[in-house]
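Good morning,

Both structures are done.
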Amino acid sequence: MKTIFKLIRLFFIRPGEWVAGTPLFAYFAWLNYMVVSKYADLFLHTQETSEFFSHFTMSGFDSLYYSVITKYHLAFFVYRHPLLTDMLYPFSVVNGWCLSLFGVNCATIIVALTLMLCMIYSFVFIRRTLREVVGLGIIDANLLAYLTFAIAYITLTYIVPDHFAWSMTLLTITTYLAGKKIQTGETFGKWQTAVIFVLTAGVTMSNGVKTYIMTLFTNGRRFWRPGYLIIGVLLPAAAIWGYAYWQEQEFIVPREQKKAAERKAQSRADYDAFARAFADTTHLTDSVEIANETRKKYKQHLWDIHEQNQKYAWNANKGKSLTDEGFGAWTDISTSRWRSTVENLLGEGFQLHQDYLLQDALRTRPAFVEYRSWYNYAVEIVLVLLFAGGVWMGRHNRFLWMCMSCLAFDLLLHLGLGFGLNEVYIMTAHWGFIVSIIIGFLLHYTHGLRYLFLRTVVLLLTLWLFLWNGWNLVTYLDSLSIL
C-alpha cells in the first residue's frame, strides 16, 4: 500500500507544474492536431498497414505504431525493442473497439493522445530534476525545461508515431529518481532496478544500459553485491534477452524463412523468363552455348541492378559496416564523424535544415545537408559553449557525471560504433534533455552580472529554437501532399 501511495505521489502533477506547462501543452496539442488532421482523410478510413508506410513521411521516423495499433502484429526488431509490441496491445484493443463501434480507425488519435501524455510527464520530470536535483529557481527551471522541448527532434518526438516519446519519458523519470537518491544518499533496491530496467530496456535495449549506469552511480559499490547483481541486474537482463530470442525464433525466423523461399522461387522464375527471352532472340543454336551465355548475361543483368540500387538513398547514405550480418551490420566505419557531428548530431538534431526539410535519409535526403546561413552554425557554437560551461561549473557534482556517463554511452554508440549514424538526429530524444540539465549547472553556479547575461543567452536561444523549428515544421506540414 505504501508503494502504491508513493507511485501516486510521484505521478501526481502539482499545481505549479500545470501552470508552468500549460503553454507548452497547448503548443504540442496544436502540433499533434495538425499531424492527425493532415492524414485524417486517408488514415481514419483504412485498415491497410501498407498505407501508413507509403504515405507517412516525416524525416526518418517510422509509422509502425499506427500499423501495430491497427492490426496487432510483431513489427519491431525484437533485440532492440523487445517489449514494445506488447506495450501497444492495450491500445490495439481500444482501437478495435473504435472500429467496431464507429467504423473509424482511431490509431492516429490514440497515438496523439499517448504522445501528449508522454510529453506532459517528460516536462514534469525534467522540470523537477532541474528544480530539486540541480537546485535551480522556478524561472530558470521553467526556462531550461522549455529549452528542452524547443530542440528540433525532441519536438518531433512528441508528434510522430515512433518509440522515442516513450523512451525519453522513461529516461527522464529514471534520471529524476536517480538524482533524488544521489541527493539523499539512498539507493535503488534490487527489485526497483529490475522493474525499471525491464521498462526502459523493453522499449529500447540501449536504455537498459543507461538504467544500469544510473544505478551504478546511486548504489556505488553496493551495485556489485551478489544479491543485487543477480536479482537487479543479471536476471532481468537474461529475461529480456531470452524473451527477445523466443520472439525471434517463434515469429521472426518462420517469417524470414517464408520470405526467403518466396525470394528463391521468384529468382528462379525471373531467371527462367530471362532465359526464354534470350533464347528467342539469340543467333546461337547449340544448347550448351545458349545456357552458358544466358548465365553470363543474367549475371551482368543482376550486377546492373545492384549498381542502380547503390544510387538510391537507402544505400548511398549507408556507410560501410563491420560485417554484413548480425549486430555488426548496425555499425558504420566509413561515414565522416566530423560532418555527422556538425550537420546532424548538433545540427539537424537541434535546428532543422531548410533544404530537404524533414525528408528521409533513406529515401530522398542526402546524408549531409548544410545550413544556408552562418548564424545556424553560431547557434551550435553557443550550445557547445553553454554545455562546456555547465560541465566545468558542475564538475564536482556526482549527478552531473552520471548524466555525462549516459551521454558518453550514446556518443560511443553513434559516433564510435556508428549505429544509426546516417540519421543520428532522430535519436536526439535519448540524450538531448541532458544538454538542458548540464546547462542548468552553469546557471546554478553563476552569480551576478554573468548570471544575468547567461540567463539572457539561454532565453534568446530558447526563443530562437521555438521560432526556427516551429516555423519550419509548420511550413513542412502545410506543404505536405498526402495523396
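Second structure follows.
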Amino acid sequence: MKFTKIFLLLFVASVVFNGCGPAKQYVKVDRMPEFPGGFKNLVAYMTQNVQYPEAAMQAGVQGTVIVTFIVEPDGSITDCHVTQSLSPSCDAEALRVVKAMPRWTPGMDKGEPIRVMFNLPVSFKFSNDEDY
C-alpha cells in the first residue's frame, strides 16, 4: 500500500525590488528583507503552517503558487496577492500563511529601512513514502 506524503517545497525568489507607489523605485538595495531567523526558519515556518487543501489533494492538483507581497519598513507584510495561481484552494492556503507571518527584518538602503516587493513561490507536491 502506498502512502502519500505531502511536501512543501519552498524556495525564495526575490526578483522585483520596488519602492511602491509614488516613492522611489529600488533597483538595488543594500540589504534584502529577511524572515526572522533567516531562510531556514522561513522554510520551517512554511512547512509547519501550510496545510495541503483536501479539495486539491482529491483533485490531484500539484504545482506552485507565487505570492507577491510588500515587506514594509516596520517589517510588516502588506499587499499580499497571488501572481501565479494553482487552484482556488491552494491559492487561499498560500495567502493565509503569508498573511499570518511574523514581522520580517526590513530591507535597508543607505541605512534606512525601505519597502521591498517580495515574491514567494510555494510548491504543493505529492510524494510516495516508498521513495525514501
